[in-house]
Specification:
The structure is a homodimer. With about 425 residues, chain A is an alpha/beta fold. Chain A has a single domain, classed as 3-Layer(aba) Sandwich (Alkaline Phosphatase, subunit A), CATH 3.40.720.10. Chain A is about 25% helix and about 20% strand. Chain A is built from 13 helices and 16 strands. The first copy, chain A, has a ten-stranded mixed sheet, with helices on both faces. In chain A, strands 9-13-14-12 form a four-stranded antiparallel sheet, covered by helices on one side. Chain A has a two-stranded antiparallel sheet with strand order 3-4. The first copy, chain A, is globular, with a radius of gyration of 21 Å. Chain A starts with 7 loop residues before the first helix and ends in a 6-residue tail after the last helix. Chains A and B meet through helix 1, helix 2, strand 2, strand 4 and strand 12 of A and helix 1, helix 2, strand 2, strand 4 and strand 12 of B. Bound molecules: magnesium ion (2 copies) and zinc ion (4 copies). The site of one zinc ion has 6 residues of chain A, from loops.
Chain lengths: ~425, ~425
């Protein structure tokens, strides 16, 4: 058990103060230390190691946000949603719940100042860019990379109730879907086809607009994605699901008195023609790989979505899929050492690993890789019918990295610190 | 906000592959990433930094244990108590709940194999040793450093119901209290005077035995501790409280519907003549400081004990006190760079930072340093009258270090890995 060698020389050898040429940022939405541990226990055992465990530099990252107010000093929100957290690393600045790469303001419906994102800065530097998620590609995490809007709900032109100023017909930048294709991200892969089937204010659907005005090639199945071999002349928009993509495992929902599956293991479910997150990540890397460098954000989105539903199998499966994407990113980094790879979450979540005899609260038990039972319980108010969703929590979360300037994730950092690290800090040596 | 410089050079400069001369291990019982974040928010603000945040090397540490069984392969316990976890870093080996520096066995009442501890190995190497806690000094965490017994409850000679084979009158090593003074730890400071007032099987109290047979000088107040200036001729036993030492803050117990204090802040409470954890730590370092080196374990014990009681103020205060002890240890390390300082917890716990509108579960709200409300909720079964205590949880926890071989806490490690690191690994360069 454990490791036998002093790691000092290995760590010294892994320090690279150069600015990164390329950056791959892999996010598990809601992936905190508790969920990583639960997935490790289930998938490889308590003493096993995930790919994301193996990055040489690691630290703790704070994820707090702001609340709307009169400003200029806004109240602190000790628990945040996925919009301000993704905006944090995307722009280097804090903002309020629901907001995408825009500053705080007096109310949720009042737009803040647009903040330029890492992805946009890479674009300006003439580098290629990619944005990949298992959620709707217009969901908060991927949206923050390349759109600016006061309310995350405004994903398509038919969803603009809280964002009237942003409507294109009002002279705004449009919905998240419109902004993503306007930004010209070279590789956009995920779910959310229904948003792109909505009519723009000008008439055609967002998808038609993406194809005819923004020159996007469109893929809707794993096979169609496989067939894409270059983004040199056309960026690619992959929409593999109407809404969020299908999770690896069927749901196991915690309930009062305890839930489990017939044999204690999570059941794989049919994902039809959808590509896996690893397949999307490998394709994105292949398409973006170029001597000038690229920025790629990859999200395992439904760790969070399953946790909200108290679905331990859904969350574990999504984390397993993200871990395979990490494995692919690390393989690329090994042959392209000028690439910085960062793996982290956006905020902590509800799942707690609890004793087997935990009792009354909503729990589920699975048989872990070691062959022994692991029980989880969920933070929740349990109020209402049905009980409210399990909620985000405010703990700092793990961040890990390898490659140029990866040392900047050690100790305790804030997620806004990733912004300068991904853009490349002035080398210290 | 955030840091502006690339940290690569600083981190490279902090790597020291030499074996440490001295080791100071500071433990917050139950101190996981969630509790660290809650204490930081309350004490210095969401963007503030605790002393324990500032150590240059950091990682995640797994804390699982074993369950009793036929062996040789024992079932995994994904949530552990303080006995096997402290035994893990003390001995480098896993064991079962309730057990102190002994291996697993078929039942809780059946002794396992004694495992030699880091403290004992330092003693054998002719170095000085110290063991400091705000709990009874016979409680699981300090006990594991220098005693070996099948059940942690066997703290004094009158508490041996589950440890009959260990009774001195049965030819055993005796209770934890007896073993601690038999081990000759040079500096033993904490609570638990009532255990030492118990009669040994031979007749005199443990305290009398400690003084007359084991040559201990005894201190019972901060002033008496102040007066101790050397352990060259007599080791020192400080017992400052009948049971656990008094917490910094009065209790704020979470309840259904939410609890708070009149002004939102935690109220300091009278601690009489008890020294603070920082005072005990500074005195221990002063007494142990010598060219040949020492091992010192310091525990902020009641982070855990307060969390069990859903007492957020108690837990925050105890973490603040530990953080001051960390500050003192770091100041010593700065002038004694051959000292390895490690700061971590033993296992995760129940406290979650939740949204303000969390609702029904047991919550408490305090006004954090930023001036804004922070709400916490607790894992618990809520069954029984009164409801069961909040429980330990199974998440990996933060570990941080500075000094020789501190790089060995980076990435993902198990708490048993600390054993070889504290003893000093073969330098890699
Ligand atoms: Mg997301
Ligand atoms: Mg303890
Ligand atoms: Zn999220
Ligand atoms: Zn969420
Ligand atoms: Zn403990
Ligand atoms: Zn405990």
């Amino acid at each position: 058990m454990g490791f036998t060698q002093d790691r000092s020389a290995d760590l010294a050898g892994a320090i690279d103060p150069a600015k990164p040429t390329s950056v791959i940022l892999l996010i598990g939405d809601g992936m905190d230390d508790s969920m990583i541990t639960a997935a490790r226990n289930y998938s490889v055992g308590a003493a096993g190691r995930l790919a994301l465990d193996e990055l040489p530099f690691s630290g703790a990252m704070t994820t707090y946000g702001l609340k709307v107010g009169a400003g200029p000093d806004y109240p602190i929100a000790y628990v945040s949603d996925s919009a301000p957290t993704a905006s944090g690393w995307s722009t280097g600045k804090k903002t309020v719940d629901g907001r995408l790469s825009q500053g705080p303001s007096t109310a949720a419906t009042v737009p803040g100042e647009d903040y330029e994102t890492v992805l946009e800065k890479f674009e300006k530097a003439g580098k290629l860019t990619g944005d990949v998620s298992t959620a709707e590609i217009t969901d908060a995490t991927p949206a923050a990379a390349a759109s600016h809007i006061n309310a995350r709900a405004c994903q398509g032109p038919a969803n603009m109730a809280d964002c009237t100023a942003a409507k294109k017909s009002n002279g705004g930048k449009g919905s998240v879907a419109e902004q993503l294709v306007d930004s010209g991200v070279d590789v956009l892969l995920g779910g959310g086809a229904a948003r792109f089937a909505q009519a723009t204010d000008a008439g055609p659907t967002v998808l038609d607009y993406a194809k005819s005005t923004r020159n996007y090639a469109v893929a809707t199945t794993a096979a169609e994605l496989d067939a894409v071999t270059s983004v040199a002349t056309k960026p690619v928009l992959g929409l593999f699901s109407s809404a969020n993509m299908t999770r690896k495992y069927a749901k196991l929902e915690a309930k009062a008195g305890g839930a489990t599956t017939p044999d204690g293991t999570c059941a794989a479910q049919d994902r039809g023609t959808q590509p896996t997150l690893q397949a999307m990540t490998e394709k994105a890397i292949t398409l973006l790989d170029n001597p000038n460098g690229f920025f790629l954000q990859v999200e395992g989105a439904s760790v969070d979505k399953a946790e909200h539903e108290r679905d331990i199998c859904g969350a574990i499966g999504e984390l397993e899929e993200l871990d395979l994407a990490v494995k692919s990113a690390l393989a690329y980094q090994k042959t392209h050492p000028d690439t910085l790879v960062i793996v982290t979450g956006d905020h902590a979540h509800s799942t707690q690993i609890v004793p087997d005899d935990f009792g009354g609260s909503m729990t589920a038990t699975v048989t872990a890789f070691d062959g022994d039972p692991m029980t989880v319980a969920y933070s929740s108010s349990y109020a209402g019918t049905p009980p409210q969703q399990a909620t985000h929590t405010g703990a700092q979360i793990r961040v890990a990295a390898i490659g140029p300037q990866a040392a900047n994730v050690t100790g305790v950092i804030d997620q806004t610190d990733l912004f300068a690290t991904m853009l490349g800090r002035t080398p210290s040596t």
